[in-house]
Amino acid sequence: MTESRGLVLIVEDERHISDVQRLYLAREGFGVHVEADGAAGLAAARRMHPVAIVLDIGLPGMDGIAFCRALRDAGDWTPVLLVTARGEEADRILGLELGADDYLTKPFSPRELVARVKTVLRRAAGPPGAPPGSTGRLSVDPVSRTVRRDGEPVELTATEFNLLSHLLRHTGQVFTREQLLAQVWGYPGYRDTRMVDVFVSQVRAKLGDASPIRTVRGVGYSATAPGP
């Protein structure tokens, strides 16, 4: 018997979609629980502590945006994969800004869904190699995956932490958005580079003037050690 990879919570109100998601995830060794509305999904997340959440934005009652906000406001940083309709770009960006880790746009292959779930779980486990213990006003602990600014804790999602760590491990090196998508997200050849800008903006907003991330115009991003 294959050992379970952990429980994935699917919050999706379209039964034919959630049935396919459940089937493919179960084939890969995940336990799966499905809820059809946001409030029930949020209660299940708090009760079951899944390893990842596949979250539709267009839910009845509490939608995916409100779900994600409530989850993060409660200090729950379980990886969240948003599922959005093609015309929901503004909601998709807002979801990322609220702490979602990734997204898929309908229609999508169930095999891609499984691959994305595996990828967000790998990112949550952390990249190989330890980032600097401290740099300027920042202290980065690779074991507990925590960040402190001037001694005060800063809450980062798994993806935000990995992005910051990757840049700090290569201080001074300039990365294109495509390189960051390949090396941090694990998506070589992925074309939606706007996701990188959203996460960089989020890290900068949380770190304030202690942020070491610099924009290299026309190229991408790099990190420099901030001043004292």
Jot down its keywords.
228 residues; alpha/beta; 8 helices; 21% strand; globular
Please provide a written account of the structure.
- With 228 residues, this protein is α/β, with parallel strands linked by helices.
- It is 41% helix and 21% strand.
- The protein contains 8 helices and 12 strands.
- The strands form 3 sheets. The protein has a 5-stranded parallel β-sheet, with helices on both faces. Strands 6-7-8-9 form a 4-stranded antiparallel β-sheet, with helices on one face.
- Helix 1 crosses helix 5, helix 6 packs across helix 7 and helix 6 crosses helix 8.
- The radius of gyration is 18 Å and the shape is globular.
- The mean pLDDT is 86.
Overall 3D geometry? globular
Assign the structural class, choosing from mainly alpha, mainly beta, alpha/beta, alpha+beta, or little secondary structure: alpha/beta
Largest sheet: 5 strands, parallel
> What is the element string, with H for helices and E for strands?
EHEHEHEHEHEEEEHEHHEE
Number of H/I helices: 8
Note the gap between the termini. Answer: 54 Å
Question: What is the spatial order of strands in the main beta sheet?
Answer: 2-1-3-4-5
CA radius of gyration: 18 Å
Relative strand content: 15-25%
Give helix % range.
40-55%
Q: What value does the average pLDDT take?
A: 86
Count of individual beta strands = 12
- Stretches where pLDDT falls below 50 for ≥5 residues? none
